[in-house]
Design a protein that fits this description.
With about 240 residues, the protein is α/β, with parallel strands linked by helices. Helix content is about 35%, strand content about 20%. The protein has one domain: 3-Layer(aba) Sandwich (Rossmann fold). Bound molecules: S-adenosylmethionine (SAM). The site of S-adenosylmethionine has 23 residues, from helix 6 and helix 10.
Length: about 240
Amino acid sequence: MLIGDKPHFYGRRQGRRLRKAKSALMDVFLPSIKLDSKNPLSFVGKNQKLYLEIGFGDGDHLAEHSLKNKDICYIGAEVFKNGVANLLSLITGIKTNDEVSEQISLLSNRTDNIRIWDDDIRLLFPLLPDACLDKVFLLFPDPWPKKRHANRRFVNPENLQILARLIKPNGILRIATDHTTYKFWTLRQLHNCPYFEWTATCGADWKNPPADWVETKYQRKALREGRKPVFLDFRRK
Ligand SMILES: C[S@@+](CC[C@H](N)C(=O)[O-])C[C@H]1O[C@@H](n2cnc3c(N)ncnc32)[C@H](O)[C@@H]1O
């Protein structure tokens, strides 16, 4: 839904007050790895792959992926300030305030393959060129389970059309959810979308996490509460 000319964001932008170290990382370090909106792909080499994670939450998945795969570039998008601060702590390894000023200059080799978009991803979409993404992760998106809130769900025809423009042919859109309504909703939306095909050929393909999977906070919460996540990979045709 558009309010003014900006899409309206229904989730939370900030939670508890940040601890000192995280607050310092936000002030001192975030500006150096924020995505440059004027030249968003300037950090990506000619033959490098580019992955996008939408709504990375506490950043566990994005941090581990980007630290393990230094040859791949990552854009992480998250609106929730506390989540962004947590990601900064994970990718730098900095936990206390004293470490921030001591270690900040040593960090570029840990973080040169990742850029952060600390706002609504829908504001970045128009700034990205066609077919620039190899993989997109949308992991445990807010399910908005009530029928009257269905128009807030991220998986919808408009966003799928945009993602189809941005993902390369044979690129992957990965959606994980622990919510039954959202699972069926996603499968229906993707079934109706001519640009993607579901890669699963048997139950194990969507019941088990994929090979490059990293557990997320919301996945752990789902498992604690007895809900089984599903892992849906769709290939851009
Ligand atoms: C349910 S949480 C899941 C977080 C994480 N992926 C996980 O699995 O732990 C959904 C996250 O998506 C973020 N989010 C929702 N819509 C977004 C948007 N349009 N742009 C960026 N982030 C978004 C929310 O702020 C929230 O942190």
